[in-house]
Amino acid sequence: MKCWKIGCALLAVLFCLTACGQKRTSVDTVTLGDNMIHLYEVDGNTIVRAAEDYQLKTPDAIASCVEDVMTALTALDSSKIEAYTYMMGEDNSLQLELQLKEGTYENEDILLLMAATTETLFQLEDISSISLSVKNAVDEVCADQLFLRDTIYYYDAEENSLSQEIIAMYVPNAQGTGLESCGIKVQTEPQTSDQELIVRELVRKNVLPADTKVNQVSVHDSVCYLDLSAEFGNSAGTLSPEITLYALVDSVIAQTGVDTVQILIDGKIEAKYRNVVDINKPLPFNTGILQDE
Q1: Alpha helices for the chain (secondary structure H)
Q2: Structural domain count of the chain
Q3: What is the mean pLDDT of residues 126-151?
């Protein structure tokens, strides 16, 4: 068996490209009854909806829902799952471990199983992320990956892996008083800029307000013009406007190599960010806000 391990920080919409380079078969939209979800399974080199939908027994208890759904997935005739264990985090993150039945599995088989499992589980709206580990019958780790709701995963048939890169970022320290540097592994996506990957990661870390999106990115004369959605102007927890703003600005400069970043909100240059920090001109890297070593 070929075992592989991919770790990433990174599913509202999940697309899985098969070894033939084609997107998986789409499923017709079906109206579900109350507390019903679809079960997704692997069929050849595609993901399909199982013949029968599943009725959640205890829809108000997220851990019980996970237990019910995993029991149903394991019981499918096509299931490759021998056993599973899971743990819910306080932030409703799910740590899930699958053990495969005896057999020979290619990388694509495991990727498709992970895609079908996470697509099924993310119908439980309370789940924030899924850390999914897959082991073979002799307890060897074959895959280990973090799935998020807002990431599109691309399967590279030539490399037999998910493309990934390390992005340089600055994130708030534990006290929220300064920024510290880090490298974060993310899934690369066709036609997705580094600036958008940075924004998504900062949203995931609750640094930027929820639902902040990148409208447009352009670079001219070493100035990055970063146009963000209106949600960017909202408060993000207890972080100060300066910490929030420069986590973004310093990250973009560190990762892309531009000299300055001009922030726009829905296409317009605003005078101040949250009525505190000037953003009416391009902003340079702010060394004064970095955490002391």
Answers
A1: 62-75, 107-121, 194-204, 241-256
A2: 2
A3: 85
